[in-house]
Amino acid sequence: MKEKQENNAGSGGAIAAKSTVGWLLDFASPHRRGYIASVIFATLGVACGMAPYFCVARMVIALIQGVREIPFYAAWCLWAAGFWVIRYLCHGVSTTLSHKATFAVISEVRLRLTKKLTRLPMGFLLDTPSGKLKNVLVERADSIETALAHVVPEMSGNVLVSLATIIYLFALDWRMALAALITLPLGFLCYMAMMSGYEGRFMNYVAKNKQLNATAVEYINGIEVIKIFNQSAGSYDKFTRAAKEAANSAIDWMRSTQTYFSLAMSVFPAVLVGILPIGCLLYMAGSLSIETFIMAIILSLGVVGPLITTMSYSDDMGKIAAIVAEITEILEAPDLERPAGEAALLGCGIILQDVSFAYKEETVLNKVSLDIPEGSVTALVGPSGGGKSTLAKLIASLWDTNEGTITIGGTDIRNIPLRQLNDTVAYVTQDTYLFDETIRENIRMGRAGATDAQVEEAAKASGCHDFIMALENGYETRTGSGGGHLSGGEKQRISIARAMLKNAPIVILDEATAYTDPENEAVIQAAVSRLVAGRTLIVIAHRLSTVSDSDKIVVIDKGQVAAQGTHGELLEQSPLYLRMWRAHIAAKDTKDITAEVKA
Ligand SMILES: Nc1ncnc2c1ncn2[C@@H]1O[C@H](COP(=O)(O)OP(=O)(O)OP(=O)(O)O)[C@@H](O)[C@H]1O
């Protein structure tokens, strides 16, 4: 089953090791008709832009030849005006077509990126600042627009017409054509000098901007802490430093290319530098007719525009490789490897065998073995930092174990397709994220397609219906970014409602009642009992009294199973558990006394 990796299909893996052009073609090919039509119209447009020069040449030659018929000149003027109008019409059609196709491509790139994020190991996501990810998803994806919507049609159109004009010049008089190209080698040298090290300098500019983005996001996300701890000066300094570095990198990059770019821009299109002196010499020697001379001068003046346009896009060609590299860095990052299809699970019992894990170098879990029978309630308790949440995350498949295996229903979780595993396990944490959506939609995330009645039923069962109805807009109230408009306890209950709606056979509650007051704790405990009836439940709790009647309590200490058994057994057998229980009871008593005194 493993050979067929669902995760890479049609995304990162499919485009691995492709060149920038190959990558762009991969994304653009579904819209190739649009691009081909856009190139055709762009070429027609540029050709129509050249045609008036031809008309002018015909008129000048006729004047020299002594033609005196006004209708003759009027006709050529009309042709010239007509071509000029058609030029802009073609340009408009070409731009519309290329933008239509390009925005579809950009949206596809963003979709693939966002889908990819759901398949990446948490390690990759945590190590990447959110500002950088946002930068790639929004700004970088947008930058493809110049390459595809402008460079593809306009550059190809201008190159084609320049080539056609030069071929025509060769047909007219090969010496004039060569004279027109005399500046080409020098212009090419300037161009090569501009492009040498271009990608590196641009990448430096990109890296500094990513840093600026990451700092800006950090500054905004941490604004509460910055205010409370009066850190505004330091944090602001960090931000201004990042802003200055970003600005300097842009100036360095511009400075290093601008001289060569300006030289190339002035040398490349300087066709008259060769044509005028050589043409004069040939004309005076009698080997060049005045008609051919005039036609060569005027056409070569006409070709200057397309050449300059071509040159101006060379800069964008240099950038695109760097932009594609940034996008592919995410698309090609290795997925959490999971197979496709459906795995046959024999129930929902969980077995961990010799599981070891480290986020980085330091071992967090060391040869943990555990049996969690189907339909049982297992509590994970132990000192802070012992590895309880890490264990839960490994079962929820947010990370892969380094050693050992975790099986659900007898199947290694690495052999369970991600979608199936997500349907099987509901993981509720104390800081479950709420999207800036209505409360109804936030609960509905538990099961796409659930009816309003089902959403409300889950809300009632998790004890949040009453507080939701007390809000001005009830279920249609927006929760604010990250659930910022709600209290910690309210957010928690909504996340429990979400898990209820998901109806998964395995439920992991990671400190899910941490924010609740005693009154609500009872409501949540009742909700949790309904949520977990007949399911396999793993609950992580610091308040031991909330888990004392679990089927099994596992004490995790320093990444190992220190003891396991029922509450009664552990009180007898585990000195660590006994200490924790006594400390909990003492703290509880103090709280109760304080509450009584306050009352
Ligand atoms: N994303 C991470 N990257 C690196 N180290 C981490 C990460 N998450 C947790 N750790 C470390 O792993 C160890 C175990 O953390 P874990 O959250 O599993 O403990 P815990 O027993 O759940 O603690 P608590 O009861 O305080 O929630 C800690 O030393 C913690 O610092």
From TrEMBL:
Protein name (Swiss-Prot/TrEMBL):
ABC transporter ATP-binding protein
Enumerate the spans annotated as ABC transporter domain: 350-583
- UniProt keyword annotation of Oxidoreductase present: no
GO terms assigned for molecular function: ABC-type transporter activity; ATP binding; ATP hydrolysis activity; ATPase-coupled lipid transmembrane transporter activity
Instruction: Provide the transmembrane region boundaries.
Output: 35-64, 70-90, 147-170, 176-194, 260-284, 290-309
A GO cellular component annotated for this chain's UniProt record is:
plasma membrane
Q: Where in the cell is it found?
A: Cell membrane
**Which InterPro entries does this one have?**
AAA+_ATPase, ABC1_TM_dom, ABC1_TM_sf, ABC_transporter-like_ATP-bd, ABC_transporter-like_CS, P-loop_NTPase, Type_1_exporter
Membrane-topology annotation of the record: Multi-pass membrane protein
The ABC transmembrane type-1 domain extends over 36-319
| Keywords assigned by UniProt, alphabetized | ATP-binding, Cell membrane, Membrane, Nucleotide-binding, Transmembrane, Transmembrane helix, Transport
Q: Which organism is it from?
A: Breznakiella homolactica
**PROSITE patterns registered for this protein in UniProt:** ABC_TM1F (PS50929), ABC_TRANSPORTER_1 (PS00211), ABC_TRANSPORTER_2 (PS50893)
Which is one Pfam family of this protein? ABC_membrane
